[in-house]
Amino acid sequence: MPDEFKNTSDLKQIPVGQSISFQGIFILLRKQVRTAKTGNKYLSIELGDKHGSFSTNCFGDSAPHAVLETVKEGEILKVSGESDHFNDRFSPKLRTIEVIDEETASTENLLADLVETPPEREEDLWESLQEAVASIQHEGLKATVQHVLDETESSFRTRAAAISMHHAYRHGLLEHTVHMVKACRALLPLYREVDPDLALAGIILHDVGKLEEYTGTGAARKTRTGILQGHVVLGFRVVRKAALTVKLNADLTERLEHIILSHQGELAWGAAVMAATPEAVFVSMIDNLDAKMGMVQRALRNTPGGEVFSEYLGGLQTSLLVEAPKKATPSE
To answer: Structure pTM?
Structure first.
């Protein structure tokens, strides 16, 4: 029988113990060289499409390994293999891999079926962000934010917010930022010590360094500058340059820079300093909240129907219960 053509959602619903020959077209999201207990090198890879992703290993004596050695993350691959599972997670045995060039991918409009995007439309998210900028009352802070967005709009609208942890897909940074803006507005009435203009400006710009830290259309990967400096430092530089350009006063410039430098929340998580102003504490907590809930939302979207728990989520250090609460009373 010919191989069945599958996407990640189909593949993850194959029962444990059942073997199916399949073909699929996926993006290479991650490739890492690892060493087995025997001392032999092998490749650990993650393949994905708009429905999710799966991981598997390729060893040095296999045909797929020879192809993967020369393939970069973000490239499109046509894959065939046999379904298999490891620790109850789909982890197939790959048989063949063929690289699909950009021209073919464009002609056949493959990216539309491969690149994961948020449920909300890009245009709606961008409109929400622009409305948030317009709501900033302080003209200097508003001008600083607008200056950055004017120079970065194309990449801000499309860039992922991470490689794997949260909002790790096309338009993910835009979605993450807009959701943080909405959380900010909902919480500001409870915390009147927080200056709304500084909080909004800090939220909109907190991850702007990721526009230089990451690159890639199909899958995000770190740039040379991203590896050497990181998005916190890169974002600080972008914000300082914009603040100087629009002549934002020294106190607000320092406070806005501090939000960027501290938004990661903990030094161990990449913050340059600990949050030391009301606005910086507020922004770092909202960032953490939306990052975690972004993982939850994605797991709920991508876990196959019928599953009780999602796959293990590194950012939450657990699997997620995806079944909806049973709210009906016994009499119902």
So the answer is: 0.83
